[in-house]
Specification:
Length: 174
């Protein structure tokens, strides 16, 4: 599996939205024994960027990245981030997203956007033995959705976050 930024002409079924112009994400599943890819799935639109990818024991691929779209499709039980304030500390609102793709690459099991009214980005992704994706990233949101925080206040321009999502995408775990 590999996730890359894609051009509009990239082959593969569309998971979400309409891909126009440069940008969007192409997720490719390769056969380790041959050169052609087994499947290609496109996610999102020009304002979506891949960050990291991880595979669970069942072959599902988790793709995490960044979006600045308010209409990124959310199928999971995680509450979507609130709209950004008019006085952003950065040049634009960006939130982190995670999509769980089926093992054959034919589509998604679920997708979620995680963040607050500021800026978020995933920098690491792993999958626990029970299938829960564990994500690490940075935020400057004072209202990032916290579950059992060590420190619940923003402690500078950026803070580190670590979150664990239920394998079925129904919510964040404490």
């Amino acid at each position: 599996w590999v996730a890359v930024s894609a051009a509009a002409e990239f082959p593969g079924p569309m998971y979400t939205g309409t891909l126009t112009g440069a940008g969007g994400i192409a997720v490719l599943r390769f056969d380790p024994e041959s050169r052609p890819f087994l499947s290609a799935t496109r996610i999102g639109a020009p304002d979506d960027y891949p960050g990291v990818i991880a595979i669970d024991a069942d072959g599902n691929a988790y793709v995490a990245g960044t979006t600045s779209r308010a209409d990124f499709p959310v199928t999971a039980g995680i509450e979507a981030p609130p709209p950004p304030p008019s006085d952003l500390r950065w040049d634009r609102d960006e939130n982190a997203f995670v999509v769980k793709l089926l093992p054959d690459g034919s589509g998604a099991a679920w997708s979620a956007v995680i963040g607050g009214t500021g800026w978020e980005r995933f920098h690491g992704l792993d999958v626990a033995a029970d299938g829960d994706p564990i994500l690490i990233g940075m935020t400057n949101s004072v209202d990032f959705p916290l579950q059992s925080p060590i420190d619940g206040t923003l402690g500078g321009a950026l803070d580190l976050f670590l979150c664990r999502v239920e394998a079925v995408g129904s919510g964040l775990l404490p």
